[in-house]
Specification:
Blueprint: E1 11-17, E2 21-22, E3 28-38, H1 40-43, E4 58-65, H2 75-90, E5 96-102, E6 106-110, E7 117-118, H3 121-131, H4 142-154, E8 160-167, H5 176-186, E9 191-197, H6 203-212, E10 217-220, H7 226-238, E11 242-250, E12 256-264, E13 268-269, E14 275-278, E15 281-289, E16 292-301, E17 310-320, E18 333-344, H8 348-352, H9 356-379, H10 383-400, H11 403-409, E19 413-417, E20 422-425, H12 431-439
Parallel strand pairs: 2-18, 4-5, 4-8, 8-9, 9-10
Antiparallel strand pairs: 1-3, 3-16, 5-6, 5-7, 11-15, 11-17, 12-13, 12-16, 14-15, 17-18, 19-20
Helix pairs in contact: 2-3, 2-7, 4-5, 9-10, 10-11
């Protein structure tokens, strides 16, 4: 039985950036919390297994779309085989893994016995041989793929549980409710990166999968790019060192949480994932961590107070559910914490100032929304609405230094003036360019400190 000392848990730090000053009667407090994990020095770059288990330190399942459309053109399935083989080569020895073929049902391609195989020279070779048997045929029922993946990962007792999902089409062989139920069932049990290959898949389906399972979503328009993308995803997964980290927010009596959002490296609204964890406190899931830093935007509503009064508006901490003993019997231990304050003043300059970090990420969230609204308007034929929203997106991208998003926008609109957001819609836009902009619209840039 494993017994892991606290020193093996990656170190977390939380820094709070805010303007605490409110005018008389002011109630809303905004803060950016930067969370940084530095785990390599404490774990040697190895994930922390679940305490009390003898399973592998990590488990990974790769779901490959094998529906009939993957053979049109054949380069898609060929690229998927090659990318999966490359991802298997990236696995550390000892990591549990499996490959699932997805059509209107889910089938274990390897190892095929309802369990994960331990990565090694022999099992990698066997898995690659099994990949040769993949053929295209049938429909698409992604919920069944996810449920099988969940069962495989739960069988291993791994500390880090991650999946990669590749699809080229729409989820046409099960209802939206069935997919939603599958995501609800899998949420919290593993993380998942989702990829769409080609241009015939549904963006909102793929991004919803990644969002629900705290992973990334992206487009690989050309199947030739799958190998590099799969390799990068697996390398990132292998750098994860701890799972089940939650952001815990406590608020005092009379205060309430308006929203909690991750704002870097991507915009992700966590408000609806609140889980009560005690008197006036709740936890928000953040998934698996390696050596990395993320930013969160908190908005709290506090009781109004008079000039000169001060209060603790909230306390944010990071908690790790795995413990030295049985995690089901031991309370989560805090990894780090930060304080959000409110101070009422009659100094107009102080109370109206916007903290730079808050201003930056408010703009990044608006940027993502403007892109989505602009593209929706463009698809519906609302030229004026699309021009207005995409122009605003160009303005925000330029002001915040989000160069990658600015480049993607320039493939959809002709930019007349960045500062004023003056643009013209392009008469012809490649479908892959429009899908790339929409899929990557939530990616943000860090604030310049």
């Amino acid at each position: 039985m494993a017994n892991f000392a606290k020193s093996r848990v990656p170190r977390f730090s939380a820094e709070v950036y805010q303007n605490p000053y409110l005018p008389e009667g002011g109630r809303e407090v905004h803060a950016i919390v930067t969370v940084t994990a530095t785990g390599g020095g404490t774990t040697g770059g190895r994930p922390v297994p679940r305490a009390g288990t003898g399973g592998p330190d990590a488990g990974v399942v790769i779901m490959v779309d094998c529906s009939g459309s993957m053979d049109h053109p054949p380069a898609k399935l060929r690229g998927a085989r090659e990318a999966t083989a490359a991802a298997l080569d990236t696995l550390r020895d000892g990591v549990g893994f499996a490959v699932v073929a997805g059509t209107h049902r889910a089938v274990e391609v390897y190892p095929g016995d309802g369990r994960l195989a331990a990565a090694g020279a022999a099992t990698r070779a066997q898995a690659k041989e099994a990949l040769r048997t993949l053929t295209a045929g049938g429909g698409t029922a992604i919920g069944s793929w996810l449920r099988l993946t969940g069962r495989l990962l739960s069988s291993a007792g791994a500390g880090i549980r991650h999946a990669i999902l590749l699809t080229d089409g729409r989820n046409e062989h099960e209802s939206p409710r069935e997919l939603r139920d599958a995501l609800d069932a899998c949420s919290g049990s593993f993380t998942c990166d989702a990829r769409g290959v080609g241009t015939d898949w549904e963006i909102k389906e793929v991004t919803a999968i990644a969002s629900a399972l705290l992973g990334t979503a992206d487009i690989v328009a050309d199947p030739a790019g799958l190998t590099a993308d799969f390799t990068h995803m697996m390398e990132t997964a292998m750098r994860k060192e701890v799972a089940d980290v939650g952001l815990r927010l406590w608020t005092p009596l009379g205060a309430e949480t308006v929203f909690v959002k991750q704002v870097a490296p991507t915009v992700e609204d966590l408000t609806g994932r609140r889980r009560e964890s005690g008197p006036r406190s709740a936890d928000y899931p953040t998934g698996s961590w390696g050596d990395e830093s993320r930013d969160y935007h908190l908005c709290l509503r506090v009781p109004a107070a008079g000039i000169g009064q001060e209060m603790l508006a909230g306390r944010v901490s990071l908690i790790f559910s795995a413990t030295d003993g049985d995690p089901a019997q031991s309370p989560p231990r805090p990894l780090s914490q930060g304080l959000v304050r409110a101070l009422w003043t009659d100094d107009v300059a102080a109370s109206t100032a916007i903290n730079p970090q808050v201003a930056h990420y408010t703009g990044q969230a608006e940027l993502a929304q403007a892109i989505q609204q602009g593209l929706d308007a463009r698809k519906s034929g609302d030229t004026d609405g699309a021009t207005e929203k995409l122009g605003r997106a160009v303005q925000l991208a330029g002001a915040s230094g989000n160069e990658e998003t600015a480049k993607l926008l320039a493939k959809v609109v002709d930019v007349v003036d960045t500062a004023t957001g003056t643009v013209r819609l392009k008469a012809k836009v490649a479908e892959a360019d429009e899908m790339t902009l929409e899929t990557r619209s939530t990616k943000t840039v860090r604030v310049k400190k």
